[in-house]
Amino acid sequence: MMHSAGIQLLGFTLAFLGVIGSIASTVMVEWKASSYAGDNIITAQAMYEGLWKSCVSQSTGQIQCKVYDSLLQLPGIVLGTRGLMLCAILLGIISMMVEMVGMRCTTCMSEAPAQKDKVALAGGVIFIIAGLLALAGTSWYGHRIAKDFYNPFTPTNSRYEFGSALYVGWGAASLIIIGGSFLCCNCSTDGSGKQPRYPASRSAGPQGKDYV
Predict the structure, then answer these.
(1) Residues 6+ apart with CB under 8 A from 38
(2) Does this model's pTM top 0.90?
(3) Which of 162, 141, 168, 138 has its CA nearest to residue 28?
(4) CB contact at 8 A, 168 and 25
């Protein structure tokens, strides 16, 4: 019992850190950074673009950021990645609330351990779905960056590379999936480890008869 509770707590901790990382990745501006590959690159400034705004960093240390004005003018890749990351965060928060009820280290539903394990299993599944959504969003955005970078028709000064927010998002998605897997594997193992029930053995002699 203590071993199972420890695995659940480990899985919840990993998934919780992953959700925090997904939130940080979503609000970060460094989803893609200007590339310095090539000969005619202006290194006096560095440009970053995120899901909500774009920034320009000067060599003097001054940073100027601009929030995207119109939602309808944004590229489809930005809108799609926004939706995937926000859905991942929402599902992660829902799963955390579910796990607070289903984990064995909590007192909720302690009188029904079988139902409590099912709730924990459901929370783990939701965690895995949230991690897959975050992984899909970051991978889709990263694929577009790589596609534009290797496109020969893309101007040299308009090429971007992977930003730090992508690496944070990939790491966060991995933590969520691993944490959710721990929760699911722990519940399934406990469910399959129940001992079989055998019918009560009967005595060899006939019952209900008295002998003198």
Answers:
(1) 156, 159
(2) no
(3) 168
(4) yes
